[in-house]
Amino acid sequence: MSPTLRWLGFLSLVGWGCVYLALFGWFKAHSQDFIVERRSARLCAGSACPAANLPMRWDVSEENSLPETLIAGWGRPESDGAWSVQREAAIHLPVGRGLSGCLEVTLRMAAAGQAGQTVHVRLGGGQGGQAQFEWWVEGQGSQTEMRLSVPASAADERGVLRLRLMFPDAYRPAKRASSPDKRLLGAKLSRVAVKRVEYGEEVCTPKLTLSNGEGKGALGAQLA
Amino acid sequence: MPRGLAAHDDPNTANASPLRVPWLQVALWFLASRLWQMSIGVLALVNRDGLQALSPDRLTGLFCRWDCGWYLGIVEQGYGLEATDQPGATNWSFYPLYPLLIRGVAVLTGVSPVLSGALVSNACFLVALGLIYRYVRVLGGDHAVARNATLLVAFLPQGVVFSAVYTESLFLLLAVSGMLALREQRYLLSSPLLAALSAVRSNGVFVIVFAVALLWDRHGFRQLVQPWRAPLRYLPILAAPLGAFAFWSYAYVQTGDAFAMATSVRHGWGWSWESPVGNLLMHLRAGGLEARVWTVGSLCVFASALTLWQKRFWPELVFCLAVFLLIWGGSIPNSLWRYSMVLFPAWVGLAFAMQRWRWLSWVVVPVFLSAGVFLGWAWATGQLVSI
Lengths: 224, 387
What we know:
The complex is a heterodimer of chains A (about 220) and B (about 375). By secondary structure, chain A is an alpha+beta fold. Helix content of chain A is about 20%, strand content about 35%. Chain A contains 3 helices and 12 strands; from the N terminus they run ααβββββββββαβββ. In chain A, β6 (about 115-125) and β7 (about 130-135) form a beta hairpin. The longest helix of chain A has 28 residues, at about 5-30. In chain B, α5 (about 115-140) runs antiparallel to α6 (about 145-155) and α14 packs across α17. Chain B is globular and about 60 Å long. Chain B starts with about 20 loop residues before the first helix and ends in a 7-residue tail after the last helix. In chain B, about 50% of the residues are buried. The chains are: A alpha+beta (about 220), B mainly alpha (about 375). The interface of A and B includes residues 27, 32, 174 and 179 of A.
């Protein structure tokens, strides 16, 4: 094989590799979890959600399992809540289109294990942008209640407010102790609530407050 | 000439080229093994249901258990189906080449998709057995070692999956043919085979590890990092992910999620990648009978793969290790044995080891026979352990 042909062959292979990298990067950047999207599309029978009658509150239990809004990453609801069973879990709240002002979303949860866990949440995705929070959820069964204030415009075009929770410290009890529980546990969600809040003329900026007083954990909040 | 070929001429093939595959013998081994596997299944069905188990429908059903339904769903209705009793489990978890072949054969022959799938699987398995024979000969094994490796694969416990509507046969065929072509330095031939391999199962792309290790082993590290000197050698490495990329592109167009396969196994089966050692310990400690059988079976294949060490077959060894890392890294133990058993280099290594240490045969043969009866029986009667 002549040197010219060899170099042409080599450059073709390099080009081919670059196409792979570009395509992979494109896919990573633009792919959306199709299971989450598919389930979210079923909310409000697939059309735009009407304005919800706020405040709304759900106590998650076997009877009141929020099967439609606990979109993905949650286990079968138990008597006192539902465990997150993946490193990421999604909650989609059909608050409705056309709302203005500020919404306050409350999540009450207890972390798996003794030590507690860090939880990240991304909220929104609509015109109001996306807010990211991080907090510390107490372990040993202690309930931590988080109140997230966000602009109502953070809901998407169908009026669905999307919360994406991440549990980087989730673990399987069966790997640590003699527990037979092989689920990947992050935190147990026991309550979800949404209400409107009035700040007068004050601009609604995303913020996080913890209800357990100690504030052991509001590690930060920012607009993406 | 491939390494070690001349040193292992054998009286049985003295007048023939040592690389020639004795297809008649291979066909006989194939038939004997299929008869063995199907006999176990039929006996299990008759034992449970009496003579009515001998109806054509029930016997055909032996080719279709567990994941077979997913493949048939793709053949008949395409992608997009979701299990009603397993939220998040969709047929996007299954790669498309095998269902495409089934559909092609069904259209050409007019037979049902199940029979078409069985035809594809058996044809692939027969050819794969012949190529495994040749592979051992290329590695320098004599007729006895090649025969033993072929027989080990033919009589693998739960080897009924090689005749069923499962991807194992096609995966085995493409893996052995692609790797054989690489061993024989036929890069233009190996490239499409490896590309097709990654369109059968996601771990097919790991054959890249083999291709790189083989280049290193054969030409040294210096040549390996100078691809402009002989670019053709690198063609199979670039071609190997092509099947996976084609599937990802199709999934992206259809669902907006190029990684629909990974998404589906995460939501539907609870799959996530974690520490392989931690997973193995968890399966052994906290798993049920099935998880323990799968894990122990997989560890046995791993032990067999380690025998590749004694012959310095590094490329095959690192390929097996890479696949083990992937499948052990999965948090669920389902089908660990089935995923492991298609790693044919492990059985090639074991066949070489059996020649060196004769006593091994006295361990391997009874284990294969007893485990074969156990898993074949479980397959026929629909026990979870055969999933």
